[in-house]
Amino acid sequence: MASKPERGITPAGAVLEGYAELRRQVAIMRELAHAGEWDALVERQSTYLELGDRIRRLDAQAELDQQAAQRKAELLEAILTDDLVIRERLLARRQELGQLMESSRRQRDLNRSYGKQADSVANSGNPQASETP
């Protein structure tokens, strides 16, 4: 990831390089989401957000000709497409986690409600189980 425009590069060139790098980052994030690599995705997201902020600042200062504006639009379209895929995968993951949490809550509630009763039924056939050593 380029942190500053190199000498001799125009502001418009720096903007396009920034968007190209952002495109590469979001493509990696899309692959991480597909692979279920959630921790790596979150780590990469902070770099992505920082890069996006830097590009917004550069973009505000640069004038793009028609060709550069077209390239920027193409990059943005690809970025937004990948971003949508990532969001869909994250929403699916959130739903999975919600179901797991709900199942865990129900199991906990059942154990609270029937745990003592289940212990007493299990121990009723074994009088020594209720004795303390």
Summary?
The chain is mainly alpha-helical.
Note the run of SSEs as H and E: HHH
Helix content: over 70%
Whole-number total of structural domains: 1
Measured on Cα atoms, how large is the radius of gyration? 27 Å
| CATH hierarchy class name | Mainly Alpha
Distance between the termini: 67 Å
Shape by Cα distribution: rod-shaped
Unreliable stretches (pLDDT < 50, length at least 5) are 1-5, 129-133
> And the CATH topology?
Methane Monooxygenase Hydroxylase, Chain G, domain 1
Q: How many strand elements?
A: 0
Total number of helices = 3
Structure explained in plain terms:
The protein is mainly alpha-helical and 133 residues long. It has a single domain (11-108), classed as Up-down Bundle (Methane Monooxygenase Hydroxylase, Chain G, domain 1), CATH 1.20.58. It has three helices and no strands. It has helices at 11-35, 38-61, 66-124. Helix 1 (11-35) packs antiparallel against helix 2 and helix 1 runs parallel beside helix 3 (66-124). The longest helix has 59 residues, at 66-124. The chain is rod-shaped and about 80 Å long.
